[in-house]
Amino acid sequence: MSADEKAVYLTFDDGCVPEVTPLVLDILLHYGVRATFFCVGDNLLKYPEVFQRMVNEGHIPGNHTFHHVPGLRVSVDSYIEEVGMTDKQIEKNLSGHLNHHLFRPPYGRFSYKQKRALSRTHKIFLWDVLTHDYNPRYTPDKILSIVKTYTRNGSIIVFHDSIKAKNQMLPALPKVIEYLQQEGYKFKTLN
């Protein structure tokens, strides 16, 4: 990214689910935006067609554990196993063409030992703009306000393509994209 270029990274956690992810993909397609999706492995197992559409439309997959486990509540070995199971689902659905391993810990938390073990095999990404779209008390306008207040060049913005976030996220996402485009931001994918 050059110094003159303004760019942000839209990311989505907790999918891919048929009730929400296709609607997100429709919005992204409408605006010509690509994003990074940190997927729960169990969802990939259940809904490979949703994952396939996401990849076919140029979005980047990442790993969000197999069962969305909180790292601080499980052993290092169990956590690494969860990540490995999800890697296998991603690779299976990509026909073995995965050339990178992206990871985001559920809730943004994991132990130092888990992080150290995963950093050998994965690029780990957190975020600097949390939209709180999973909170039913946050309106689409409140989510837009958060993005306006905290987004900077290079920001990683996290939304959730989950049933829990659906009612807040879907109306907010177009507003956020339009605002960022008006401000001159380009949308990039993590890699």
CATH superfamily: Glycoside hydrolase/deacetylase
| Major sheet details | 6 strands, parallel
- Looking at the overall shape, the CATH architecture is Alpha-Beta Barrel
CATH class assignment: Alpha Beta
Order of helices and strands: EHEHHEHEHEEHEHE
| Helical segment count | 7
Q: Which structural class matches the secondary elements?
A: alpha/beta
Low-confidence stretches: none
**Principal-axes shape call:** globular
CATH topology: TIM Barrel
Distance between the first and last residues' Cα: 13 Å
- Helicity range: 40-55%
Sheet-strand content, in percent, reads 15-25%
Sum up the structure in keywords.
191 residues; alpha/beta; TIM Barrel; six-stranded parallel β-sheet; two-stranded parallel ribbon; 7 helices; 15% strand
Explain what you see.
This protein has one domain: Glycoside hydrolase/deacetylase (TIM Barrel). The longest helix is centred in the middle third of the chain and has 18 residues, at 76-93. The model has no long low-confidence stretch (mean pLDDT 95). The two termini are 13 Å apart. The strands form 2 sheets. Strands 1, 2, 3, 6, 7 and 8 form a 6-stranded parallel sheet that branches. It is an alpha/beta fold. It is 41% helix and 15% strand. The protein is built from 7 helices and 8 strands, in the order E-H-E-H-H-E-H-E-H-E-E-H-E-H-E.
